[in-house]
Every structure is written in structure tokens, then in C-alpha cells.
Amino acid sequence: MLQKIKTAVALRYPSEAEAPIITLKEKGALAKRMIEIAKENDIPLVEDETLANVLSVQEIGACVPEETWNVVAKVFAYIKKVENMNAKGIFKN
């Protein structure tokens, strides 16, 4: 049986950018470590294997491809919702 290689991609959406920017991407052990660091620092995580695989072929510093904008917008909306709930003490990741 083939074992899946973990992929992780970090995004940032600066106000002056046309779309979110890929700030970091890793596979395998480094992707797992990236996820651990995010958890240790209470950085919101969203697991979407398909999206991670699509974004991981892009260059660091590139805007996410237009074809992914709808899915990426949903990711950012979810993260904002979780952050708002955390601020109100309703939910903690």
C-alpha cells in the first residue's frame, strides 16, 4: 500500500495583494513539522489535501491561482469565524 506524503502550504493575504500569497510550502517530514509549529503557535489550520496539492506546485511568493479563489476564500472565511469565536471565548482550537 502506498503511503501518502503530507503536504502543507501557508498563505497570507496582505491588504495590497490581488489574492492570497503562498508564503511557505513543504512535503513529508517538513510539512509535518510546519503543522506542529502552527499548532504550537495557535495558527489556524484547515486540512484540504486537494487544495494543498494544487497550491504546492506554485512558487513561494506567488498569488494563489484564480481557479482556487473560491475554495481559498472559504478557507479564509472559516479561519475568520474561528478567530472571532476564540476572541469571544466560545471556541478554542
Question: Can you walk through the features of this model?
Answer:
It is globular and about 45 Å long. Helices cover 42% and strands 14% of the residues. The chain has 93 residues and is of the alpha+beta class. The chain has a single domain, classed as name from scop (3-Layer(aba) Sandwich). A two-stranded antiparallel ribbon has the order 1-2. Strand 1 (7-12) and strand 2 (21-27) form a beta hairpin.
What's the structural blueprint in terms of helices and strands?
Blueprint (H helix, E strand, L loop, with lengths): L6 E6 L8 E7 L1 H12 L8 H8 L12 H19 L6
Antiparallel strand pairs: 1-2
Quick recap of the structure?
The chain has helices at 29-40, 49-56, 69-87; strands spanning 7-12, 21-27.
Q: What descriptors fit this protein?
A:
93 residues; alpha+beta
What percent of residues are in strands?
5-15%
How much is the radius of gyration in Å? 14 Å
Rounded mean pLDDT score? 91
CATH class: Alpha Beta
CATH topology: name from scop
Quaternary organisation of the protein chains: single chain
Gap from first CA to last CA = 32 Å
Integer tally of domains: 1
Major sheet summary line: 2 strands, antiparallel
The number of E-state strands comes to 2
Count of separate DSSP helical elements: 3
Strand/helix succession: EEHHH
- Poorly predicted runs are none
Content-based structural category: alpha+beta
